[in-house]
Automatic annotation (TrEMBL):
The organism of origin for this protein: Marinomonas balearica
Cofactor list: Fe cation
Pfam families assigned to the protein according to its UniProt record, in alphabetical order: Rieske, Ring_hydroxyl_A
Name the record gives this protein: Choline monooxygenase
Keyword annotations of the record: 2Fe-2S, Iron, Iron-sulfur, Metal-binding, Monooxygenase, Oxidoreductase
SUPFAM superfamilies in UniProt: Bet v1-like, ISP domain
């Protein structure tokens, strides 16, 4: 079963996607266009850029982009490509007043407009007019910021982001994202296909066995599947929240004005294709999954507390412990996924069986992928 057109929905329902889709380099190239460029993919978090002039280069499925923060504190996203001969402008996170191409020294303002191009007219050393510069600025990328996550639509043809995310906004109406404060961002790299990383996040079944420090088997037995939209699925544990991070004296503050009935619930979501989003009554976690190749994936894990009180000195120990626990969980997953990449890509894996009691959300995510790729 090496042809994408031969994969049936029925096979995915019973056995999951076939083994070859987690290692085939040709399919990875197709994903760049059909999945990542055509939809709303995440590339980072706005609070990673702390000061005006901060620039963050990112790669996503073959695209080189830069996120910038201008003098007014506004976020912008551009292709990391000089408008002369397409050289990359920025290689590392930095803070600059302007960006200078290393190839021919064309320079660009933080807002993407062309600042100058040395000796543009050759021997006629006249300055460039604003009209000359007008069509030579950096190419903008359509983007949106939601819960501090930066989403891009590279081909520009996806539905409006507000419509795309509306079902999840409605589900989270009691959780106010306006005051969330980032406490850390940690980058990871794994020798694994990106789809396995997403699938693992949406697998509640493994949590009490791999991450016993985070969840008990009794808690996960109350798992509720959430089919939010054609692009968003998730899980809910009504009583899954811990009273406080392990080994700390007190509990982090809850979301402001959160109803009492929701102060025990944890919810986590996969926003197709690559955004992983976890909402606890006292903290938020996002993972931006960045495919680097058919069998290599980077991740950026960001952790937030939910208001100014939780970000104060009073809760420093609790924030540190939360950061420690959540990164420990992700490290355990990376170790497991590197091993799973070897076995899940073997043809023998096609004889596996999804379990109706546990794997409906994973199956749904894989069906999303199949629909996008065959469409």
């Amino acid at each position: 079963m090496n042809n994408i057109t031969q994969i049936t929905s029925e096979h995915v329902t019973k056995h999951g996607l076939p083994a070859h889709v987690f290692k085939d380099s040709g399919l990875y190239e197709q994903e760049s266009d059909k999945v990542f460029a055509a939809g709303w993919a995440s590339i980072g978090c706005a609070q990673q850029l702390e000061k005006p002039g901060d620039i963050l280069p990112v790669r996503i499925a073959g695209q080189s982009l830069i996120i910038v923060k201008n003098r007014e504190g506004e976020i912008g996203v551009f292709h990391n490509v000089c408008r002369h001969k397409a050289a990359p402008l920025v290689d590392e996170p930095c803070n600059k007043r302007s960006m200078v191409c290393p190839y021919h020294k064309w320079s660009f303002k933080i807002d993407g407009s062309l600042l100058s191009a040395p000796r543009y007219f050759g021997n006629d050393n006249k300055p460039m007019s604003e009209e000359d510069k007008a069509d030579k600025g950096l190419i903008k990328v359509r983007f949106a910021v939601w819960w501090d996550i930066i989403f891009v639509n590279i081909d520009g043809n996806a539905q409006p982001f507000d419509e795309f995310i509306a079902p999840l906004d409605e589900l989270l109406t009691d959780h106010n994202p306006d005051n969330i404060k980032k406490i850390s961002t940690t980058d990871y790299s794994g020798e694994v296909n990106w789809k396995l990383a997403v699938d693992n996040f949406l697998d509640g079944y493994h949590v009490p066995f791999v991450h016993s420090q985070a969840c008990s088997l009794d808690a996960i037995l109350d798992q509720e599947d959430l089919f939010v939209s054609d692009n968003i699925v998730g899980l809910r544990l009504v009583n899954g929240a811990s009273a406080k991070p392990a080994k700390t004296a007190k509990q982090l503050p809850h979301f402001d004005n959160l109803p009492e009935a929701k102060k025990g619930a944890q919810q986590w979501f996969g926003i197709f294709p690559n955004t992983l989003f976890f909402v606890d009554p006292c903290w938020v976690q996002t993972i931006v999954v960045k495919p680097m190749g058919a069998t290599t994936t980077d991740e950026s894990l960001s952790i937030y507390v939910v208001n100014d009180e939780a970000a104060s000195d009073e809760f420093k120990l609790e924030r540190e412990r939360l950061n420690e626990v959540l990164n420990e969980v992700n490290e355990q997953d990376i170790e497991l996924l590197d091993k799973l990449q070897i076995t899940r890509t073997n043809e023998i894996a096609n004889q596996g069986h999804l379990v109706p009691a546990w794997d409906q959300i994973n199956m749904s995510f894989q069906q999303m992928w199949l629909k996008k790729m065959q469409g």
